[in-house]
Amino acid sequence: MKIKKTYTSLAKQTCLLAFAAGSVLFCRAQESQSIQNSIPRINLKGLTVQTLSQKEKYSMKAVGTRDTAYCNYDVTYQIFKGKGKTKKLALGLNQLMNNAITTDTAHLELPLQKRVEQDAKEFKAEWESLNTDPNSGWTFNYTKEQKFTAFHANKHYVSVKDQAYYFTGGAHGFRVIVYTLLDNQKGLPVENWHMLFSDTNTVLKIAEKTFRKAKGMSENEDISKSWFWNGKFYLPDNFAYTEKGILFYYNLYEIAPYEQGETELLLDYESLGKLLIKPNRP
């Protein structure tokens, strides 16, 4: 069985903290909307990053069908280096990235770059096995796309975005975004959003008011009609500092059915005022 290798690319780029992104190639456009471009480059003194990408595309005719099967593997990740006060931060970022970018535990002795290459091989092998099964009669398209990038830094924290999309068959793929906020001095994640504010009850009131306004809901309207399964508003422990404010992110199914999609909730710095313990300062 002939497998067409469209391309394989291992790209490297050493720069100050930057966000890189792309797009899902072999799934319906409306299901790959999570991957975005044009995130501005940011700087943090003493911290540099090497950005690596493993990109592979394959196609073949599935056995027992007239259809062409596609396989797309596109993973971008970063390796951080720090000096002076940023050494702990770099260590924490690298550990977070190692845990997020691959679940491969069989090759822990290998550098991360080699583990990602191995992950790509295993992903392709599984896709190939399904499409060469003479008893199947089905066509299987596979996509794995993941971007792990630091995208915002200030005096106190670095914000990291782990963005992934998977499709291995079924009605639709699965996409997820996980934000992590790392303490610059400790190099450790901030475990919950309560640690950022002096008065969490007031923050919740501001957040719910902002959410209702964004969704066109009145102050007294039952929020459980379309959102929040138990009828109670809450903020997720999926958050980050951004240029404009503190961003909270609800993934698919978290507060609404699949067709409602994901929800971003931005609390701007002006509305938070002095509630934020550590302001967004360079």
Structure report:
The chain has 4 helices and 9 strands; from the N terminus they run βββααβββαβββα. The chain is of the alpha+beta class and 282 residues long. The protein folds into 2 domains: 3-183, 2-Layer Sandwich (Heat Shock Protein 90); 193-275, Alpha-Beta Complex (Actin, Chain A, domain 4), CATH 3.90.640.20. The strands form 2 sheets. It has a 6-stranded mixed beta sheet with strand order 1-2-3-4-5-6. The protein is flat, with a radius of gyration of 21 Å.
Largest sheet: 6 strands, mixed
DSSP, total strands: 9
The DSSP helix count reads: 4
What's the average pLDDT? 85
Shape descriptor reads flat
Number of domains: 2
Question: How much is the radius of gyration in Å?
Answer: 21 Å
Second rung of CATH, namely the architecture of the largest domain:
2-Layer Sandwich
Give the proportion of residues in helices.
10-25%
Report the structural category.
Answer: alpha+beta
Q: What proportion strand? A: 25-35%
Name the CATH class of the largest domain. Answer: Alpha Beta
Q: Can you list the strand order of the major beta sheet?
A: 1-2-3-4-5-6
Low-confidence stretches: 12-40
Distance between the termini: 56 Å
Question: SSE string, helix = H, strand = E?
Answer: EEEHHEEEHEEEH
Q: Say what the CATH topology of the largest domain is.
A: Heat Shock Protein 90
